From TrEMBL:
PROSITE patterns: SUI1. Keywords: Initiation factor, Protein biosynthesis, Translation regulation. Residues 1-26 are annotated as: Disordered. InterPro entries: DENR/SUI1_TIF, SUI1, SUI1_arc_bac, SUI1_dom_sf. It comes from Dyadobacter endophyticus. Residues 36-102 form the SUI1 domain. This is Translation initiation factor. Pfam families: SUI1. GO terms for molecular function: translation initiation factor activity. It comes from the Bacteria. Belongs to the SUI1 family.
Length: 110
């Protein structure tokens, strides 16, 4: 992390001061405690993506869930900014699969 991205510390007169770069990751909640929202988003060129928001847990667990959902839908996608993005409109399929795995999931947005 560059020094420019560090927020909160401008200057310290303490000679023993060390900036803490570590971010605390949240423990992954059990599937019945997760409250996921499934969105449909439009990207440039008229393309649509299915977005899964609201996952609380580690990035590794989010990546694993994203991989399972992409395999289920048979399409590409990505996991970034705490969201799972899947190419195409697969909301119904994703909600059905997540419900079968004990996740609380529902459609959101317009």
């Amino acid at each position: 992390m560059s020094k420019k991205n560090r927020s909160g510390v401008v200057y310290s007169t303490n000679p023993d001061f060390e900036y803490n770069d570590q971010e605390d990751e949240v423990e992954t909640l059990a599937p019945p405690q997760q409250d996921l929202r499934i969105w449909l988003d439009r990207k440039g060129g008229g393309k649509v993506i299915t977005v899964v928001k609201g996952f609380i847990g580690t990035n590794a667990d989010l990546e694993a869930l994203g991989k399972q959902l992409k395999n289920l839908c048979g399409t590409g996608g990505t996991v970034k900014d705490g969201e799972i993005q899947i190419q195409g409109d697969h909301r119904d399929k994703v909600i059905t699969w997540l419900s079968s795995k004990s996740y609380k999931a529902k459609k959101a947005g317009g």
